[in-house]
Description:
The structure is a homodimer.
Chain A: E1 8-11, E2 17-24, H1 28-36, H2 38-44, E3 51-57, E4 63-71, E5 74-86, E6 89-96, E7 104-114, E8 117-125, H3 129-136, H4 140-154
Antiparallel strand pairs in A: 1-2, 2-8, 3-4, 4-5, 5-6, 6-7, 7-8
Amino acid sequence: MTAFTSAAIEADPKLPIIRITRDFAATPQQLLRAHTDPDLFARWCGPDSGTVRIEHWDARTGGSWRYTHVTDGDEYGFRGTFHDVRPDRIVQTFTFEGQPDGVALETLTFEDLGDGRTRLHAQSLVDSFEGRDMWLRSGMETGVNEGYAKLDALLSDVTA
Amino acid sequence: MTAFTSAAIEADPKLPIIRITRDFAATPQQLLRAHTDPDLFARWCGPDSGTVRIEHWDARTGGSWRYTHVTDGDEYGFRGTFHDVRPDRIVQTFTFEGQPDGVALETLTFEDLGDGRTRLHAQSLVDSFEGRDMWLRSGMETGVNEGYAKLDALLSDVTA
Lengths: 160, 160
């Protein structure tokens, strides 16, 4: 049996934005490191039914990234740039290479709740409601929730 | 007397987007080069009342950029990343350093009209209507139109 906290995944009623909110038993520094260290990131990102292979990773303001999600022998590429890497937030672009013209602007904010707990706010902005709603129908919540459950499990190993 | 073509600057009624459309007597290749060659870019970008100093420039997919606009002794910094640099389009992030939390996702598309003419479509996406409307009220059309008039003038020098 798998037991974990679900993330809140919400579509903004007036903007082409998806917002995800999730609490973690970790400091903002630990969460930042889990999102910027490529070896850690590859251990938790995405659904249980696959693995992440980092192709390129330069997690600093002005850097870029690329990884491949491998599942059942199929490979799916994702890539983007790091617009901002700060202690309190990451702003990055995101493209699924199967749809190379689609681009999301993602903002991750680490809200310190005290007592070693942090609320992660992840905002994904695209340029149409159709594109946004396609992501919501894609089964993304499985990847989000299984990924964050893996992140829960490894945070005790993350020093920051 | 200055005579030049005005750009169409439009606010989307339902999305937090500004769209700019402007025709040029140039090929898509020349326009791409005018947006990616730092020496050329510095010669035309922005209003007549200032100069552009390139601080960093790596105009390839996954690269980044930073420049300072100098006017009347005041300096204004701008920076971002290049998510995509392709023959038909550039996708980049854009931040005015005076408002470091604000980020726009800009998409420039070069539509070949034939006969050495190209229509530039520039789309700027932000995460709120308030932020979008603040840009529209900032006097941006002066910088856009004066900049594109300078670009008109130098395109005959641009080989591609």
